[in-house]
Amino acid sequence: MNSDRINKIYQSIEKLKNDLKAEYEKLQVKYDFLIKNKKIIFSEEIKSYQKSRLKENVFSYIFTANIKNLVSVPFIYSIIFPAIFLDLILTIYQFTAFPLYWIPRVSRKEYFVYDRRFLKYLNLLQKINCLYCSYVNWLFLFSVEIWSRTEQYWCPIKHSTGGYVEGRYANHYADYWDPDKFNEIFNENICFKKK
């Protein structure tokens, strides 16, 4: 059956994600750093190299910037207002609705990663830009996870086409053409059954 093949592909994707994580761990040796309590610790030699040779002065960074980059800054940073609003609404939503259905809340710590602050070759403005991009990207991933859990509870049906990236729980959904499996999942609420 075709759905067996789809489920195998989902399993392959999970395996590839684990392989990718292992490759990132190998980079710790190559670039001489370790991760301790979410803090990146470089060797003194690497810190010195990053700081002395690669860091660009903030004023030089601004005054030599391409005009198109400067013109786009207000548009890029204007997203902060709807982003903060979305963050607030998502937080309220999951703290009020999720407990009603025994859906586990999404941990912010798992989604917000700002490891670029440990890079000595970034100047202050570059670090602020990286923080901003990290926050907005994190927020969208956080949002996808919240809505994937919502979808898993209310509508655990795979889509008819594979043209869009489904949430990480989709491999547990009923196939688009399988009303019996949908009813089984939905009626038993196996998605977030309170133990």
TrEMBL record:
The chain crosses the membrane at residues 58-77, 83-103. Keywords: Coiled coil, Membrane, Transmembrane, Transmembrane helix. Residues 6-37 form a coiled coil. This is Uncharacterized protein. It comes from uncultured bacterium. The lineage of its organism: Bacteria, environmental samples.
